[in-house]
Design a protein that fits this description.
Number of domains: 1
Strand content: 25-35%
Shape: globular
Helix content: 25-40%
Length: 115
């Protein structure tokens, strides 16, 4: 089971933001899309995914934000971006990429580490 990551932001992360985040961590990695661009992955030369990011969704209901992400200080409307990274070295790179993505969009990040 992969690690779940969640970025909340007041602006929607774009593909450019995601590519910039990946390049800031490891410029040798590349991006591929799956399921008609519903999911974008950062992969290495062997096609191994370091992180998969779902297309951002807009959330307008503050009560939903409070219920699902009580840790955030952001208020609706906001953008909800889910990501998944494998455990191990590849996943650590993936988490670093999502941290950079959150910073790129002035967002907040939650990393579910299973603890």
């Amino acid at each position: 089971m992969p690690r779940d990551l969640l970025v909340l932001s007041t602006t929607a992360p774009s593909l450019v933001d995601f590519v910039n985040a990946g390049a800031s961590v490891d410029p040798e990695l590349r991006v591929r899309s799956l399921d008609g661009d519903a999911v974008v992955e950062v992969v290495d030369d062997h096609g191994t995914a370091h992180v998969s990011v779902q297309h951002p969704e807009r959330v307008d209901n503050q009560e939903e934000v409070r219920r699902l992400a009580p840790w955030t200080t952001l208020r609706a409307p906001l953008w909800w971006t889910e990501a998944w990274a494998p455990w191990g070295a590849h996943g650590e790179v993936g988490v670093a990429i999502v941290r950079a993505l959150a910073a790129e969009v002035d967002g907040q990040l939650l990393v579910e580490d299973g603890s």
